[in-house]
């Protein structure tokens, strides 16, 4: 519960994070009862569209944000923490994306070294990049390409 941020909008059940963080021990007991209801209520959320660009008549100029139940977020965090160790044991060490204390920058540096070595040794090298449109809008692809 300590990782749930205060000051955020409440979800469909109108329970803010501040209510859960006020007395964590009592809240934990109450949440234990509420967690049994997760499958009924906490799958719901409010989808809010936030404008990004000037021409708001186009869907791509909006970003969707879903307001979810704060107790549901706590439950999801509990599940995530319990699943992390077994999951990390099954994922190859080379996989860095979306993992704690890992950086994709290390993988980019490795790719750059491989590229430089293949040029120096006059070996063929084939690279394949998958583009997920709008999934990673903050990545400057020109800079990434120049870096490689």
TrEMBL record:
The organism's taxonomic lineage, starting at the top: Eukaryota, Metazoa, Spiralia, Lophotrochozoa, Platyhelminthes
Domain Reverse transcriptase residues, every copy: 50-146
Protein's organism: Schistosoma curassoni
InterPro entries found in the cross-reference section: RT_dom
Protein name: Reverse transcriptase domain-containing protein
